[in-house]
């Protein structure tokens, strides 16, 4: 996953995603780079419009789970409802990042 993060950092800073760039980012983070993984990632990203991929990933529909009714038939307290909504958002973000991970190798 750190290889994808390195590529995204390079891209967001306006620098090209290259083997040397990814290696430099990983070295700065104290991660021993695997040259095969770096080459595979750079090769997989050739010709990919990263901005387009990211915009599509962030536009994925998110299903909101309806809050279950309490025992007396009353709705959840506002604080509990906000907690459920926040958990749903976190799950959606994690799901989106997993999709990006699969995309970038």
Helix content: 55-70%
Span between N and C termini?
8 Å
CATH class of the largest domain: Mainly Alpha
The backbone outline, from C-alpha atoms, is globular
Radius of gyration: 19 Å
Q: Which series of helices and strands comes N to C?
A: HHHHH
- Under CATH, the topology of the largest domain is which? Arc Repressor Mutant, subunit A
The tally of strands reads 0
Major sheet attributes: none
Overall tally of structural domains: 2
Mean pLDDT: 76
Sheet/helix structural class: mainly alpha
Number of helices: 5
Q: Enumerate the spans where pLDDT stays under 50 for 5 or more consecutive residues.
A: 70-76
The fraction of residues assigned to DSSP E strands is under 5%
Identify the CATH architecture of the largest domain: Orthogonal Bundle
Key descriptive features of the protein:
105 residues; mainly alpha; Arc Repressor Mutant, subunit A; 65% helix
Describe the protein.
The chain is an all-alpha fold and 105 residues long. α1 (2-12) crosses α2 (19-28) and α4 runs antiparallel to α5 (78-104). It has 2 domains: 1-48, Arc Repressor Mutant, subunit A; 63-105. The chain is built from 5 helices and no strands. The longest helix is centred in the C-terminal third of the chain and has 27 residues, at 78-104.
Secondary structure layout:
Blueprint: H1 2-12, H2 19-28, H3 35-45, H4 50-58, H5 78-104
Helix pairs in contact: 1-2, 4-5
